[in-house]
Amino acid sequence: MEGRCAVETWAEFGFPDASRTPRITCARGTDVFICTGSDEVYVFDTQERKLTAVLQFPSPVSDLVESHDKQLLYVSCGSGVYCVSFPFLLSRAQSSPADACSGPAEVKVPSEFLVVEQESVSSLLLVGSVLLVLSQRDASWLLSLYKTAKEAQCSSYEMLSSFSLPLVSSGDTEGTGMRRRPVLTCVHSGEPKSQSSSSASSSTLADSHFQLDPVLFKLLFGIEAALAKSPVVLCGLPDGRLCFLPLRLPGARLRVLHSLEEPVAFVGLSVVEETCPGHAKCLVVVGEQGRVVLMKTVKGGPEGGGTTAGFIEACVAGPVVCGSVDKHRLYYSTGSDLLVLDLSVGPSGRESRERDDDTSSPTAAALTRPNSLNVCRVMALAAPAHNNAGEVQLLGLSVRGQLQAIVLPVVERRDEALSNQPSAQVGRSVGDLLSAIGDVCQRVSVLKNAIKDKNQILRHLNQVLNVSFLLIASTNSEEHRPGQEKPIRCRALTRWSRLLQKDSLNLTCVLDNSSPYVLEQGWTLSVTVFPVSYSPGAGEESSSTNFSFPFNYLHPGETLEVSLPLAAAGDTSFPMRVSCSLIFSLSSLLREEETIHLPGLQRSCISLPLNTLTVDWLHALQVNNPTTHPINRNATSQSNHYPTDTVKAFLSSHRTRCSGRGESGEKKAEREQHSARIRVSSELLRDTLVDTLEPQGPKLSSENLCISLLDWLLSEHPGGGKIGQQGDRIALSSSCVHARGPNGDSVKLSAKEVHVGEESTGKEEHLSAVEVQLDSSSIATVCGLHHAVLSRIQALLQSAPERTASTVRVQSLGLREALKRAERLSEQIQQSRISGAFGMGTSTGQMSRSLLAVYKELRENPLLII
Amino acid sequence: MYQPTCLLNTWVQENNELVKKWKVRSRAQTHLRWCSSEFYKLLRKTQGVPPHPDHVHLELSVVYNACVCATVQSQFTEAQLLLTQAIQRALQMTSDDPVAPDLPAFWRKVLRSVVNTAFNSCVLDLLCLQWAMWLATCQLKTIQEFKLSSLVETRGAGVGDDKRSEARGKTSDAPLLVTDPRRLVELLQICTSIAQGAERLSEDQSSEALSGLQKASSLPAPRTLVAYVHLLSGSCLSHMNCPQMALQCYRKALETDSCCVCALYQSMLIYRQLGNTQAEIQALRLLHSMLMLPSATVPALAGTHLFSPSLLLCSQSLSSLLLVPSALSVLHNLALKCALHGRVSEGVEHYLDLLAALHSEDQHGVRVYAEAPRLPRLPELYLEAGAALLMARRSADCMALCNEVISTTLELLPERLVLEDPEERSEAETRDVTAEGEDKMAMLLWAGAAYLLQGHCHTHLKDWKQAVNHFTRCINLLVKVRCKKTDMVVKQGSDLCVLQRLKGLSLAGRGIAFTQTNHLREALRDLLLSLQAFPECVGAGLWCGEVLWRLGRRQEAVACWEKTWSFTTQSSAEGLPLYLREPQSGPLLDSKELRHRIQELGPT
User: Are the beta carbons of A248 and B439 separated by less than 8 Å?
Assistant: First the structure.
């Protein structure tokens, strides 16, 4: 019970007599009766919060009790019991000279109101029409029963009977100060019959009357009391004895039910566990030193003997000054604090006696943990009441005589409401609880998922960063160590394919992941294709084509193959550069609905360049040996490739023939064969090509060398892939290859071994070289192929091993010649350029012709590449 | 010398006024207490001056008054102290200090020393008070030794009386006394006689007691006390085996004091002893109606005298003689007698009255609880009433009562119970444990009896199925009890006896019910078991024979019948609760018819 109590002081009545127990009783609607041990009784109206009357008695008041019809008040003081009727009180109050505003009416109770003449009355109790008076005699407690009159007659009551109980010395407590008032309460058996039979009196039971569970009633007070439907008077004496007396049973005696061994401070009944409404299941007795005894029904007694009454003892920190109980809780004050003890934690009645020791000890432990309410100095408590808001309100009297209203925080109200409900409602509320549990479960799983997602994203991001660092590092290091390959890179191979009677060159790009990292979702392979040189007529932007291929997962060691159309037949914009890069879009980290909220993220991406490949003329060549060239490996394409190819050849030959007949000489000039030659030292080729192509043979024959050179030129793929098939090379049996260029022109590549030494003046040693000759009717084809072959051989040279000193000498010989030629040629170019600049006389055709001639000459006399 | 007389007069005045006030409201306890304290104050004042012969009369009168007040409030030790101190102070003036080891010796000395002084009469008055105190504390031996009656009688009849009247006539300033000593003496004399008679009666000296009482009967005394004398004489006579004369004495007592209920009670006991049931029932009915009168609860003689007989007659032997059971107990007796002796409907009414009285809120009118013949316990009353209702053929009401008992006990019934030997148990185990166990046993027996009665009710209604049901329930309950020792002696009235009887009756009832539904095999089994548990069961015996007869085992049947007829019927039923008797409501077999059958069988 957390939270603080609201304590409100309503009135002050001066210091109570320390030697007597103060008493506070809620009664008569909003009225509260307070006696502080002095000879006055205060009537306090809780609604208007003012003192309405003060009753003055001839001697100190010990106890008071209100009649069931709330018309009479019985007050015991030194000389006996007075009976004050409220009508009298009202009339006196009105007739008294004190006007309304001046304060309470003070009424001196006259001695005619004395109805029971008995000395030293300690406690009063009213059961039906019987007034019970407990008084202490020299050597005994005397419980006298008086028959009350219906209306307030001022005559003494008739004594019906009296019971005495020998006094037991209450030991040291007698001397210590306060004389505790014996506690008198009345318990009814909670049978529905008795409720109806005892008429109106039981329906308006005062705070000292309880309905006890019938089984417990029988167990505690005997079967006869239950059968007689007799109310039982419980009497807690200061010597610790708890006595009981069945009122209507003939021959009944005042018998001891239990001995607490310390002054009884409080006797009450608690519902504890609600089974049948209105019946208390537990009798609670609290001693002054803090001993708490709960009496409950215990099922399964010794040797299976049915139900028995179980006494559960526990100790709370004393001293207990006063107590009060409501349905589930015991409130008690130690003088320094007000505490509340939850009684419902006790064991249910199902436990057997055998297990009592085990079960009662945790109970006792639970019972010794009261909750503090942080209200001090409470000397007397009235029965707790529930106000409209459902809060528990206690009325207390403090040491200083202050009347305090203590409102407890509404914490356990829900439980209480729950326990008050019948089973159907309980079932419903259980359903509510279950659905609430379901909701919580759902929320937990959603949160778990979110956390999982975030972890996933982080992991993902980590991979991305790893990949990007790897790639960035490799680009940096590439500048210094060109030989090293990137861990993630692209290879490509070209293929001609025929679709819808149209040939097209497809590039198959292979992304090779040899890094230790997984390329996860969100990565996109972007391939940009653009020609290295472009014709001035075409627009710059149109010439570049971008392809992107998003992919899901690429584990280490796996490859991704994508195909993209590179060029259609007739397209001559080779060589082309293929630039590959990996792009990671940050938005792919998040799901779609989340990316909507982050518009900036949709565009943000990481772009990591991979390698750049070049697709040159050689790649685009279609070798005229369909059975052996890789393009036609596909069996399905073979079948329809043949006829179309032959038809086309026929048509084109026919067309040339026709055009040749009708066209001018310019066409003829075009048709004339252009050629270019490239010489490469065969020693170099042997060194390099053996490394790259033929690891088996240390020496290649010249014939083989030529073939392998051609083979190397034709089978090399962009990106350095050595993926040429074994069959291809075998098929290439001659050193002359006829092929078609991408624009359809046929081209002849031939290689032969020449000896450079012969041509020159001749020295003691000739240098063998391989001459690659390109012959085609199209100059563009020749140019392109020449360029391609040169660039290949350049690349080959870069990786070539160191050359020998002898070759340098030979080379220098050729160089001089070549320089001469070059000087001449540059003169020619210079000349033509000057004429071009000034030239009105020379046409563009002339100029280009002269340039072409220069070019031809350059091609015709190749340098020997060693 | 002058001054004291003046003081004396004021004190006398004060005393007299107190006495007058006292007489106005002498009964109220608070008033009594107030007067007592006032007399004490006055006494302290008078004893504040040194002892003076002139003051002695006043002083002793004040002592007398104060002592009366104290005695009436039963404060005997204070009164005794006051008395002895005052007398010692008075005697200091005249003679030596009378020091004596005990009170009788002290008084003898005192009487000897004052015999011819002026305040002899005052001392004798005080002696009367001493007598009253001795009587109230039951020191009859001392009174007898002292021969007080004769001693004081001479004084009362003789000179003292004249002197007193003289004094009263002479001056109005003579100190008044709260009670007249002569009346006190009369009262003391008869009370002493009564007390002595009771004492002798209890010591079995009936004839001496009778002679003493006959002497006392001539004494002047209040009617109640005279009635007591007659009552005691009657008791003596009944002790001397003269019941008729005793009855005469009781009649005289009743004639003297119509409120003397104990005389009626005693005569009822004599009727019972004589076996005069009708007279006994009559007496019981009278007794009950007298007890229900409001006047019976209040002793009527307190008004006439300050000293009530209850104060003076407190001896144990007398109070045991004067004991009267409560109205409820009388009513129960009446109901039981009626039910047992053929006035069933009357008995039923009485039983119902009894139950109603127990449930009414106003039954506190019955004043004395916890007297000798206690009421049976409440469930037993219910069962008895149920049995009476069954006898009166009101089976529905009977079932309702039994239901009440069953519903009350059912939840508390044990699963198993061990019945122990009562002698063994009392030694071996502690009291509270046995009390609990006994309670369980009693509860089980009550519930069993309730089922038995319900079974009988159904038998009466010829609802055999239900009857079998209820008898079975009863049997099921009874078999939960295990005896600790197999060879326990079945004592009359013990739990074991009740258990066996219940078993026998319920088995017999079930057997008869089975017979009616023609389940002869089961019937025979039950009836034989019944006879085993309770061999004297007449119904079981006869019906067992009948079943055997029907099964064709005629010789066995005849043997069974003849054995049953040989039982002395109802011999063991005496003293048993009503509900444990064999019911007369079930299907009966005509003995004549059976004998006829036997005769027919005989020749074969």
Answer: no
